[in-house]
Structure formats: C-alpha cells, structure tokens
Sequence to fold (359 residues):
Amino acid sequence: MSDDTAPEDPAVTALRFQSGACQALGSAFSAEILRLAAEDLAAGGPTAPLFAPWTGRDARAQMADAVPLRLLGALHDLALSGAAPGLAAHYPTPGAAGDAGAAWREALALMAGQQARLAAFMSHEPQTNETRRSAALLPGFLTVAAETGLPLRCFEIAASAGLNSLWDQYHYDFGGAVGRWGDASAAVRLDTDWRGPAPPLSTRARVVERGACDRAPVDVRDPIARRRLQAYIWPDQLERLARVEAAIEAVRAADLAVEAANALTWVERRAAPEAGAATVLFHSVFWVYMPPEDQAALTAAIQRLGERATADAPFAWLRMEAQPGNLALMDLRLTLWPGGEDRLLGHAHPHGAWVEWLG
Ligand SMILES: C[S@@+](CC[C@H](N)C(=O)[O-])C[C@H]1O[C@@H](n2cnc3c(N)ncnc32)[C@H](O)[C@@H]1O
Fold:
C-alpha cells in the first residue's frame, strides 16, 4: 500500500521542476524524458542508483547542482557516442522529431549495463557554452567601441570553451528592420528575435587582444570534452547543436586557449586597463555559480581595475547575468570607466533567443 503522506523524494521534485523548465524554454523532448525519469525514480526503478550521490540533499541543492540536467546530458552523450544506436535512433535528427517515450524505454533497458558510464558522466560538473549569448553581448561591445572610439582588448571570465570569446568573428542577423553585423561569410551565424530600438550596428569593432579563463575550461580539441559540450544541448534544439559545432570549429581554427583559472585571481593579473585600447571584461551566465563572498570579492577587484582607467585607457565591465531569483531572464549591463556609471542596456532570453534592447 502506498503512503500518500510520505514526502516526495527531493530528486523527484527536482526532476519534475526541471521538466517544467525545459518545457517552458522550448525543449519538449527533454521535458518528457525528465518527466518519465521522475516517474521511474518515484517508483524506485532503475534510475534510482544514479541519484545515490545526492541522497540527503534537498531539491534546491539538487537543482543548484543541476542533477536533472546531468541525467539528461548523460543520456544524450550516450546517444551521441555511437555506443547505443538503439537509443540514438529515437533522438531528434534534422529529418525526424524523435520519440522521447521510446528513447526513455530504451534508456531504461540500457540503464543496468551502462550504469558506470552514466554515473561517471553525472559526477562531472555540467559544462555548457551557449554561442547565441554573443547576440546579446554584441551591442554592448559596440556601445564601448562607439563611446570610446578605441580598439578593444577583450577578456572573458567563466568562458567555458571560449565560444563567446570569438564574438567579433561571427555574423549576426537581427531581422530586416534592425540589420546585420559582421563577416557575411562567417560559418557561425547568429540570429535572434530583436525587440526595441536598433543597436549601434554601424559601429566597427576591432579586437586587438583577447584572453579567456574558466575554473574548468572545456578543451574542444579533446573529443570527449567536445561531446560533453554537445550533450548538454537539449536534443531537440538542433539549431543550437549546429551552432555549437560551427563555433567549436572556429575556436579550433583560432587556436584560442581558455586558461584554467579562478576569475577572482585572473582578472587583476590579466585584464588591467592599458593605454590605446578599451579593455572589456565580460561574462555571461556565471554570477549565480559563485558564493556571495566571491561575488563581493570579484566586484571589488573589478572596481579597483575601473579606478585605474583613464580616457586613453578606459575599462568596461559587460555582463549578461540572471536577474536575482529569476534564471529565465537575463539583464545586460555595462559599467564604463572613467565615470563608472552602471547601465542596464537590455534584457535577454537565457540562450539569446530574444534580446530586448533599451537603447
Ligand atoms: C553556465 S556556464 C556559462 C559558460 C559561458 N559563459 C556561456 O555563457 O556559455 C558557467 C561557467 O562558469 C564557470 N565558473 C564558475 N565559477 C567560476 C570561477 N570562480 N572562476 C572561473 N570560472 C568559473 C564554470 O566552470 C562554467 O564553465
């Protein structure tokens, strides 16, 4: 007899919550896989051992650890690897929508044999890098270039694989009424649903120096790391998968290196303002991953760099980060020194699907 009053397993709560979030953010396939995983876990099915490392953690802690997304990524990685063709057959492809129910049945059948592999994938911190965030950051870079009239030195913290560090090498299409920017022959092509006035797209931006760090960089030359990055893209978002492929190739071609470093120590060592260029420190979807004391320390370090800025050596802090308590809505902010006025430039979808420019 089931006990209706027993509290729900926090992992089940987290899976259900993430399922709803995936649905809201446009991935019905992921939502269905996670819904079925929640059902299986609630019934004590074969999914349960994969959640054992998080036993005793409440649902909030499991969400902070992105445990449901780790399961989703582990299954997608298995499908992408070629080691489970029966699973892959039910995943979306350019020609077919996929069948989440059939994929889940196949996943359950594989669960015992692939337990160690899935658990090993889930033991890693999730790694994502969304190239289309560059569509939200671009107008910020252009604002700095337009207002300073200087070439740019660009330093990205929490860069993951560095895909957004090459923002100036991509082509952007903001729709007929707004316009385009960048190299028309670029392989990485970003479009977004633009809202509000047009950004300063007539501005040219010349990047004369760039640097990037992450505490756990993704080396796109490593095939396992590369597939991990792909696996964290929701399987039915095929245009995101195609985009990450193209951007990975761009990073390889540019030989961009993302240094393994904590942003806290890296910024002062690497991103101090220099005469003759505007130094831009930028980041996206990273702030919430730092504890409050690190957020305060990094803010103070950035403030110190800003205070060293002069008219000939300006310093900009550009970021696309979640509004407090709302991971589904990003604020695009710019602080430019000398002066140091903090400006809200706009808002954006977490993956850059739309950008609202405040002008
Ligand atoms: C959600 S990912 C976002 C990656 C990338 N900025 C993007 O927008 O696609 C967050 C990244 O922050 C990195 N990170 C978290 N704390 C960090 C720190 N203190 N220093 C450097 N990187 C950090 C993680 O390793 C991870 O790659």
In short: The longest strand covers residues 326-337. Residues 10-123 form one domain. DSSP finds twelve helices and twelve strands in the chain.
